[in-house]
Amino acid sequence: MNFSLLQKMCSIHAPSGSEFLMTEFILNYIEQNKQSWSVEPTVLKGKTFQDSIVLVFGKPKTAVFAHMDSIGFTVGYGSQLIKIGSPQVESGWKLIGEDSKGFIECELFVDEDNTISYIYHREIDRGTTLCFKCIFKEENGYIESCYLDNRLGVFNALLLAESLQNGIICFSCYEEHGGGNAQFLGKYIYENYGVMNALISDITWVTTGIQHGNGVAISMRDSGIPRRKFIDQIIKIAEDSNIPFQLEVESAGGSDANALHLSPYPFQWCFIGAPENNVHSPFEKIAIKDFDAMLSLYKILMSKLL
Prior knowledge:
Layout: H1 4-10, H2 20-33, E1 42-44, E2 53-57, E3 62-67, E4 72-75, E5 81-84, E6 94-99, E7 102-110, E8 116-119, E9 129-132, E10 137-139, E11 142-145, H3 148-161, E12 167-172, H4 182-193, E13 197-201, E14 204-205, E15 216-221, H5 228-241, E16 245-249, H6 256-261, E17 268-273, E18 275-277, E19 284-287, H7 288-304
Parallel strand pairs: 3-12, 3-13, 13-17, 14-18, 15-16
Antiparallel strand pairs: 1-2, 2-12, 4-5, 4-9, 6-7, 6-9, 7-8, 10-11, 11-19, 15-17, 18-19
């Protein structure tokens, strides 16, 4: 599999609230490729949708949600940095961004009190957003990069779009910092298309029960608890498909699913994604075979879920 598209997306500056560069990239990609897809989708975008994008294929029954934003940092007063979402921090890590004076590549600094700041030869404009510098590696069956969470989920959705007959793909915003606009997107697709099934194309964590190389993770719960009948249906389809998967049961973590769960609409949802370690760092890492299983399972689920 060619991961050049994923590499490009991992280097795009799009922390929560500043997704517009990723939105522009995805819209350009769709415009250049949609005519070669099995079904050319209706593309919903613009002022009402802010920076999010919705693709509608055929007669949809199930929607895939993939958030476009990443964690990062906002420059505060002086050299102060304020977290966007929950990034890991370590002195010496490279951060990049741009302000009124031009391109920035600076260093993260963490003092003995765990206060975070930047080191740079000048003061950076207040309110500037900074993200990890992308160093993308593909070797020994693994991919390592910043922002695999959730550029890998977006990559999965774009590959799925190539052969999707019936379904909806929602590229959402703000997931890393407050639950995002998934509630609005859920409202829209429920009211306009009657869709109530949602698959969350996102990245989960390597834990004691979820390991690299054992297949895609189907989450039975995290901080939210999905509808058991829906989960059982997904597990049965996965078992029948012989696609490698592992069942995740966690007490913490969340995603666009949490936003849908709290909405007043009758969504049944499931988080399905490849596991990574070094979460929210410049060195997030996934096994390629787990991503292969992830994409394969999404293709089957989108044709079989009722």
